């Protein structure tokens, strides 16, 4: 290997080492920061929290339940990958269940992105599972 190639390889290796050291340092700092998330393990979802449904109407879980069990999914509506796959898989698997949606249970998909709108929810509903679920956004 030429002297130039060795020097170039050494500079690149040094750069990579420094880059990864900085990344590790930053990830350690970020790991210690609170990101505004609070866990409420063992808690129940309050039934009277208001949401906007896919039509823009304000509703609560209590109104949507009608005394039926709920399958609650948390997704982004404007999501090209995992959220869409999860919803497609849910729809496919619910077709196999010997229960009737809206009669025996309800499915509610809730976005946790504060920027998404009822229009985004309506689009995702029409795109994926129009007759299957009730799509809501946080009020």
From TrEMBL:
SUPFAM superfamilies: Thioredoxin-like. Keywords: Copper, Disulfide bond, Metal-binding, Signal. Cu cation binds at residues 79, 83. InterPro entries: SCO1/SenC, Thioredoxin-like_sf. Disulfide bonds join 79-83. GO terms for molecular function: metal ion binding. Residues 1-31 form the signal peptide. Belongs to the SCO1/2 family. This is Cytochrome c oxidase assembly copper delivery protein.
């Amino acid at each position: 290997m030429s002297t130039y190639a060795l020097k170039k390889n050494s500079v690149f290796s040094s750069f990579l080492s420094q880059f990864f050291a900085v990344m590790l340092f930053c990830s350690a700092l970020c790991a210690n920061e609170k990101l505004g998330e609070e866990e409420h393990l063992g808690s129940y979802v309050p039934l009277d929290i208001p949401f906007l449904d896919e039509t823009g109407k304000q509703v609560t879980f209590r109104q949507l339940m009608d005394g039926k069990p709920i399958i609650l999914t948390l997704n982004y509506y404007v999501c090209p990958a995992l959220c869409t796959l999860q919803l497609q898989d849910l729809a496919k698997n619910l077709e196999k269940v010997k229960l009737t949606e809206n009669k025996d249970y309800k499915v509610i998909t809730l976005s946790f992105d504060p920027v998404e709108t009822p229009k985004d929810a309506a689009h995702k509903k029409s795109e994926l599972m129009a007759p299957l679920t009730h799509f809501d956004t946080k009020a």
